[in-house]
């Protein structure tokens, strides 16, 4: 079974110059461990359930900046349950540049591995019912994830990938930094990339 750190490494390698919004907890700490600190990554602290909504705003704001390409949001199954209504908000707005990757390990790993009520939730079916352009379950190894990402890159968004992962973790450093500074770094990167795109000012 695919483990989350390996999936995160694959995403960081595939999208080195894309805006990537990272859900809180172990996901963002593992991304820092496998990919290092990157100005195009926005760690979302203490905002469980909000990454999809934040990614929607970034996606809509960048619709006229094609050089930036995809906006990637990496979310967890438990956090998505808390922000479930975002699926319904995103569908009608149809941001063509949004790719949501949901890592589903079936538990709240950061708080002790309590089961999450996601086993019987059809995230793919809900996304499609809410008007998303495409959605797919990914259950397998790293090759299955890479194939799904290749497929997603050929689709107009919004696209949702539900990626089943195990509960293995890797050692990570504690991470608690000022969200204002994190947001400013990300915004500065977006501004620099946008200013280099002639289509952004047309």
Strand content: 15-25%
Strand order of the largest sheet: 2-1-3-4-8-7
CATH class: Alpha Beta
- Ends distance: 46 Å
CATH architecture title: 3-Layer(aba) Sandwich
**DSSP summary, beta strand count:** 8
Give helix % range: 40-55%
Query: How many domains?
Result: 1
Low-confidence stretches: none
- Kindly report the name of the CATH homologous superfamily: Thiamin diphosphate (ThDP)-binding fold, Pyr/PP domains
CATH topology: the name is Rossmann fold
Given helix and strand content, the structural type is alpha/beta
Structure write-up:
The mean pLDDT is 91. The longest helix has 17 residues, at 179-195. The chain has a single domain (4-193), classed as Thiamin diphosphate (ThDP)-binding fold, Pyr/PP domains (Rossmann fold), CATH 3.40.50. The chain is built from eight helices and eight strands. A hairpin with a 5-residue loop joins strand 5 and strand 6 (114-115). The chain has 202 residues and is of the alpha/beta class. A six-stranded parallel beta sheet has the order 2-1-3-4-8-7, sandwiched between helices. A two-stranded antiparallel ribbon has the order 5-6.
């Amino acid at each position: 079974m695919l483990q989350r750190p390996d999936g995160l490494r694959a995403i960081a390698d595939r999208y080195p110059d894309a805006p990537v919004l990272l859900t809180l907890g172990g996901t963002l700490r593992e991304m820092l461990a496998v990919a290092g600190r990157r100005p195009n990554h926005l760690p979302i602290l203490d905002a469980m359930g909000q990454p999809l909504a934040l990614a929607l705003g970034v996606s809509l704001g960048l619709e006229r900046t094609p050089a930036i390409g995809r906006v990637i949001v990496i979310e967890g199954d438990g956090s998505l349950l808390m922000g479930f209504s975002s699926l319904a908000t995103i569908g009608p707005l149809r941001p063509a540049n949004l790719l949501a990757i949901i890592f589903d390990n079936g538990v709240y790993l950061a708080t002790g591995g309590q089961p999450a009520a996601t086993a019987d939730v059809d995230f793919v079916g809900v996304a499609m019912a809410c008007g998303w352009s495409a959605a797919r379950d990914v259950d397998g190894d790293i090759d299955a994830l890479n194939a799904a990402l290749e497929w997603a890159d050929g689709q107009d968004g919004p696209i949702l990938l539900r990626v089943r992962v195990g509960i293995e973790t890797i050692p990570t450093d504690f991470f608690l930094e000022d969200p204002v500074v994190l947001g400013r770094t990300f915004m500065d990167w977006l501004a620099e990339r946008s200013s280099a795109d002639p289509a952004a000012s047309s």
